[in-house]
Write a structure and sequence with these properties.
globular
């Protein structure tokens, strides 16, 4: 079954590194799942392919480390480094959680969407 709520928080925070995935990373731009900010916001540290657009929305080091799409050697290097450096990883997790709360929570994203629609006259 699905792991949700506090159980998901505990699961993500209990592992040193979570591997992200984007099947579209080398062929599509500006697409990523809500699992990225969800993982970071719940206290996970994510090693993820560098998806155009995502890198601009959540900077490297804010609970995430990016590697070039399809570069599994670099992915392994990042996993090894972040697993071995607890102090740096925990600081990045804390910074990432704060960043996601400020910029990528569902309420913030919904407000951004409503502001955009209002500014463009969609609800005039």
């Amino acid at each position: 079954g699905a792991v949700r709520s506090a159980n998901l928080n505990n699961l993500l925070a209990s592992v040193k590194v979570v591997l992200g995935d984007s099947a579209l990373a080398s062929s599509s731009t500006r697409y990523w799942s809500d699992r990225v900010p969800e993982t970071i916001g719940r206290g996970g540290f994510l090693v993820m392919q560098a998806v155009p657009g995502l890198v601009e929305q959540i900077p490297d080091g804010m609970g995430v480390a990016y590697y070039p799409p399809d570069d599994l050697d670099r992915m392994g290097e990042l996993v090894d480094w972040w697993v071995a450096h607890d102090h740096e990883r925990l600081a990045a997790v804390e910074a990432g959680q704060a960043f996601v709360r400020e910029h990528h929570s569902y309420s913030v994203r919904m407000q951004t969407m409503l502001d955009t629609l209002t500014a463009e006259g969609a609800w005039a």
